[in-house]
Specification:
The structure is a homotetramer of 307-residue chains. With 307 residues, the first copy, chain A, is of the alpha/beta class. Helix content of chain A is 48%, strand content 12%. Chain A has an eight-stranded parallel β-barrel with strand order 1-2-3-4-5-6-7-8, surrounded by six helices. In chain A, β7, α8 and β8 form a beta-alpha-beta unit. In chain A, α1 packs parallel to α2, α2 runs parallel beside α3 and α4 runs parallel beside α6. Chain A is globular, with a radius of gyration of 18 Å. At the A-D interface, α7, α8, α10 and α12 of A face α7, α8, α10 and α12 of D.
Amino acid sequence: MISAGTRGVYAIAPTPFLPDGALDVASLGRMTEWYLGRGVDGLTILGIMGEAQKLLPEESLTVVREVLAAAGNIPVVVGISAPGYAAMRRLAGEAMELGAAGVMMTPPPAMRTDDQIVGWFAGAVRAIGDDIPWVLQDHPTVTNVVMAPDVIRRTVTDNPSCVMLKHEDWPGLEKISTIRSWQEAGEMRPLSILCGNGALFLDLEMGRGADGAMTGYAFPEMLRRVVDLSATDPEAAADIFDAHLPLLRYEHQPGIGLAIRKHILAQRGAIAHRDLRAPGPRLSRAAEAEISWLLRRLERKDPVARM
Amino acid sequence: MISAGTRGVYAIAPTPFLPDGALDVASLGRMTEWYLGRGVDGLTILGIMGEAQKLLPEESLTVVREVLAAAGNIPVVVGISAPGYAAMRRLAGEAMELGAAGVMMTPPPAMRTDDQIVGWFAGAVRAIGDDIPWVLQDHPTVTNVVMAPDVIRRTVTDNPSCVMLKHEDWPGLEKISTIRSWQEAGEMRPLSILCGNGALFLDLEMGRGADGAMTGYAFPEMLRRVVDLSATDPEAAADIFDAHLPLLRYEHQPGIGLAIRKHILAQRGAIAHRDLRAPGPRLSRAAEAEISWLLRRLERKDPVARM
Amino acid sequence: MISAGTRGVYAIAPTPFLPDGALDVASLGRMTEWYLGRGVDGLTILGIMGEAQKLLPEESLTVVREVLAAAGNIPVVVGISAPGYAAMRRLAGEAMELGAAGVMMTPPPAMRTDDQIVGWFAGAVRAIGDDIPWVLQDHPTVTNVVMAPDVIRRTVTDNPSCVMLKHEDWPGLEKISTIRSWQEAGEMRPLSILCGNGALFLDLEMGRGADGAMTGYAFPEMLRRVVDLSATDPEAAADIFDAHLPLLRYEHQPGIGLAIRKHILAQRGAIAHRDLRAPGPRLSRAAEAEISWLLRRLERKDPVARM
Amino acid sequence: MISAGTRGVYAIAPTPFLPDGALDVASLGRMTEWYLGRGVDGLTILGIMGEAQKLLPEESLTVVREVLAAAGNIPVVVGISAPGYAAMRRLAGEAMELGAAGVMMTPPPAMRTDDQIVGWFAGAVRAIGDDIPWVLQDHPTVTNVVMAPDVIRRTVTDNPSCVMLKHEDWPGLEKISTIRSWQEAGEMRPLSILCGNGALFLDLEMGRGADGAMTGYAFPEMLRRVVDLSATDPEAAADIFDAHLPLLRYEHQPGIGLAIRKHILAQRGAIAHRDLRAPGPRLSRAAEAEISWLLRRLERKDPVARM
């Protein structure tokens, strides 16, 4: 189970599809093993970058089952965000029964005021039950829901089962500092903070007090080393981070980013096909050439990235 | 089957729930009969006002099956909009197999430019098959997708299976005129236009060339008479419309509107319970008193509205 | 000066332009007198419906000067919202020096969280000075800034110079009730609440505890009588309101609404020309015919509306 | 004058303020000379990053006058975007009379459909006159106006005075390729493309066919070398770009980014004070420490960046 003390690297895994759009069930186990081989501490599935919204419920369940079967003792967090609580309750229950380590959720775009957001989370916890450890995802660039630090504090205070923040506000560094300062002053209980947003600020987020990364960058090995080195040798951590930043920035483009990530993951053997399920973008020849160029440049700086 | 020649009144039916949030299966048939008794030409289910996004897939299927069973020969349109084409394809197939008269769809909020919207509809038709008659829903106040008239024309031209526009732009009167003028000039093929947006402009929309109404106002009898009278006696149509406008405007409030509608429909016996599924708003005592006041005033002007 | 005890009808005045887009200075005094002749208690100028954002600073000042000169003892509120505090400070200072009764302001769209909105108002009061009575405009349908009731309470509590709420949330009835219940419980200081949003809910807003109307509907005479009668004879107030609702709803269309309002105000002789300054919409022939039709129907129900 | 053949580096200059918020007039000339000393081909002032929306008209004019006086023969582009055409016309006229090389404009957020955007630009050109060379700014992350490539083509085709695209869509690489492919096919006339968006993709934008950069990154020397080397030695260009990317990414944060940029520019001696005009963010101590750390790391990689 995830807890307020969880630290390290959780990879956001994509959902593999066949070129015809069908779920690539055979790839799920292999992909899970591939991530384990990269040294991650956990996995997160069915997030926004997992194309969860395009899956049928039984497909979501298949993803959960296959990944959990291959993950062994490695904790797996399952994204359950949906427009209605009913679908969230069902998926949360199924996932936990199958052995998930927790669930992740974020409110729909209509939530605007502080009270609306706090109320939505309260209702969600009533729906799924207050015994499931969960991750509060704060991702305004995608959801358009802007959470003040105090909204997070209120939600964490009201809901003991909330144990982690998936931090991906942009800019977001001050938010980490605010939460950590409240905790130091005894004004907020402990909370794990794992950082997303494509890892674009991971080097600095660790210095602000984050506990690690939860994101889908195609080289989890980079996340691993940056998180591990950040406390003891921040310069070395930054050297590794900087080597990856040109590619990471390229992968972090809205809309097209997941297609880039899957293209690289397919090249690396993590998944069999790079296809997104429709509707979704495709890479142009020019984009493919740019990825190759960025990968070649990365290889020269970081041997781990040798394809 | 709906067609480009479809005219009249299609009621947008809500989805009935029990107070505990479970689908009220028993009410589905009764509700359908209630609408038939109000003289509607057709029904539309699983739209935005049908809380479709909060249903589990098997619940959606139950709604379709029960309503179709009770509807007999009356055509039923099924809303299938979803974040992914896979769910749309499945529901469209199931609904048509069960006897639906067509499906309705509208793009997700991320669609912004003309080409993006046209492309989304093209992909949707590829997904569901080009042999299912469908309704293009143009509802920017809820979806935040703004469609220029030419986007509708391009979509209608590219997709012969698109036979109807559910018109609910606001303001939207000029859009009807533009489409009708293109059709008169031979620059666009025939298309049924049924108007939604809570019927807030139905009196004038008929004068602009609409073929009828497709909306969920709690007194379909009003829609019926306004649509029927609009060509022959627009003053009489307007008198009826105006009598209902104070209540109609009250029901048309964003966010809280469906709770008002269900409150009245429950009072009228169309559904057993007024409850929305969570997350959803509840009416205050003050709101209930306002509805009673507006209903009493309406009764004095329109005997049909006697509760 | 406006105060927390201000009640009655404040007309939102448009800004008159010549057909070539120049400010119609000559109309300003006449328009002001026209409004006074309709029995309003005050005027509000340079609001969103006053096309304030399209004016040059010296034009804004001319509007303030001319209207104040003609208004005599009638209080005039001046809208000062702008992207920067510097422009707000200058216009507020000039307006008060010329004899304005107060200013009105609302935050820019980027304000999202409760704290952001409260902070923006605090900064605005620092900029303009804490001795100018001001109106907090809550208008999410135009500004996209959603204010929880508590944001209004915090702002009112923090800023003694805030004396009035221009209430135009939609739906907004519960917000009035919430504020009034806090005040009854001694948890919030007195505050005038005048309702806008085109008067679409004025009949019911008065019942919730509003102090009057501040809006620009082209028949201020209706606002006057509804506000006056609402406490003593709500049925009579509602009869008058209902007679106007078909036209009022037509005027309340986003985007095109101001063109409709100016068209009627020009017909009524309040302004010389109906033109909006570019960029702005124009009415089609069909829209003009609809207005004539609605006016003719209105005349039959309310003799005051005879053109 | 700028033209469709303009190439190179245009620095987006900030507007310097004194700590009390007053315009820092004395810094304007010095800042201009500082930029010239960095080898830029031109300057752009009064853009979004120039806090143009917070300036009073006479302040805008002072900025234009002082910068033009110091710029000598170097072309200066003046941002004129405003909610109304009247303000745009005046500033455009004044700027050109003072010797500006052209103006830049972008539509307000309400513009959504292709036709709305094309129509807004057409109206703007009518307002300012068709003899002023102008830059079409495509910046959806700030304006929320999404322009399809064809909207740019239509606008460029309809308005011969449009000579340049300030490209800052995100993702935006395909947009450059699309425009260049149309031009190669003879389906669109020549157009200068200078890239903004904080230079986050400048290395790759040059490869897609851009003519240079127009952005405000605090080290214009980097832009200079990347633009110059991109055609002849893209690896060397990328090496320089990559060295700056960690800082550039930090400066490119929404909301707080300009405060970071001004902090560095003040350290570099380009402006006397780092202050933004209210309302605007301030840097925390932690942020200042992060900038220092990033600058120290940058110095080690690029001697030009030695402070």
